[in-house]
Amino acid sequence: MKLFIKSQFIIFLFFFIFLIIGILEWQEVFKVRKEYKIISEERISIENDSYLLALWEKIPNESFGISENIFKIYALDNNQIFNLFEKNERFISYEIKDIDKNGTPEIVLELSTGGNCWQCTWIEILKIKNKKVEKVRIDYPERWMEKWIIPERLIDLDNDGIEEIIALDTRWEFYKDVCHACSPAVDVIFSLKDGVYRISSRKFPNFYEDKIKSLEKILEENLHQKYSTSNEAYYFGNLISLLLNYIFKGEKEKGLLEFQKYADKYNFESKTLKEEIENIKTNLNRWISENYIDKLIK
Q: Which of 50, 78, 84, 164 is 20 to 30 A from residue 251's alpha carbon, by CA?
């Protein structure tokens, strides 16, 4: 009898020790430095496996209160926890959504460095498969384009239930040394096919037509304002934007005509801006090629 009790005690002791070790391991994996506080936890199930999404926020410091978020994805397996993914950034938020309507949710991260620039805010789409976290791939015509075509948001443009990526071509920021607010802008559209986002801008002419109408209105209003250097740069930026949106819509020739019309209406004084306008008028195809626009509109 005493031997039985002793053996039961030893079994219980070993069980207790393993339980404590398991708890400590869980805490070790899950912990974040004390200057952070957890702001959200969410459990999700994918392929019958359980995962925990956790987001921390840095507690403001009176002397040096820079914000920072930490986002983590953990796999949960029989009272054990495994860190699968971690992202640190100034600001992070996330959304769980089934973007391809296959019954398995993806995780859309919205990230920001907190700066005032076009590359300071972007999204990343994550998928979990076979207990691994991967980014949903975007097929850029050239790999180096990933540095300046920045995914910004998801929108279902054709109402098929699958969301397109709207990405901003950030190369045009400060083009010809114009100000941030004056910079030309154009969006590149990507559609999901076979698990990969591929360029599909030409499939959405109405998207670019709405941009064109808005830009034409801005240009007309700008013509009636008193001249200033900033006014000139703002007009120039919107003029280039108008041309770019026509090109992405698939109406290059019409875009050049509209570009010339609005350029001739404005009395540019800047030598740099006038030379660029003449350069575009003289050889639009070369300008398109030199700026790699042709790679984005196929």
A: 164
Q: What is the CA radius of gyration of the chain?
A: 27
In terms of C-beta density within 10 A (0-12 exposed, 13-18 middle, 19 or more buried), how is residue 48 classed?
A: exposed
pTM score of the predicted model: 0.86
Residue type, 118: W
Question: Sign of the CA dihedral 60, 66, 72, 78?
Answer: negative
Residue type at 87 in one-letter notation: K
CA distance 49 to 76: 8
pLDDT in tens, 235-274: 999 999 999 999 999 999 999 999 999 999 999 999 999 9
Residue 190 CA to residue 205 CA, distance in Å, equals 14
Task: Quote the CA–CA distance of 104 and 100 in Å, as a whole number.
Answer: 8
- Which contiguous run of DSSP H or E holds residue 200? none
Q: Are strands 196-199 and 137-139 parallel, antiparallel or unpaired?
A: parallel
Q: Is residue 136 within 8 Å of 154, Cβ to Cβ?
A: no
